[in-house]
Amino acid sequence: MRVLLIDDEKELVTTLSERLELRGIESDWALSGEDGLLMLDKNSYDCVLVDLKMPGLGGCRTIEAIKARRPGAKVILLTGHSSPEELDEALTLGAHECLVKPVDMDVLLAQMQACREEKEK
Fold first, then answer.
1. Which own/partner pairs from 116-121 qualify as long-range (CB within 8 Å, at least 24 positions apart)?
2. 78-104: b or e for each residue (b if 16 or more CB lie within 10 Å)?
3. What is the pLDDT of residues 40-96, one digit of tens each?
4. 63 against 101, higher pLDDT
């Protein structure tokens, strides 16, 4: 499995990337929506994890751009702070699931596996 992590918190993405690698999951990360989209243009991913609150291109706009480029992409939204309207918008734009930070690793792995299985259908 290969995933892309897009979050402006460097400590979070590097730690999460290390934890995924220990479980045999390849991961790339970007610190902005714009950089994440550049990586998405160059690589194939089973799942993309996107932070909701980021400077510049925020989570919802990033999801929208991901879906425009790759309509079948599986996206999991990560958030520490969100309004019900923002979560509804993210799901409407095509997020597979919304998880609250700090994310439970078992829950995240289960959601990533569900994304992969859905993608393979």
1. 116/1, 116/46, 116/47, 116/74, 118/74, 119/46, 119/47, 119/72, 119/74
2. bbeebeeebbebbeebbbbbbbeeebe
3. 999 999 999 999 999 999 999 999 999 999 999 999 999 887 788 888 899 999 998
4. 63
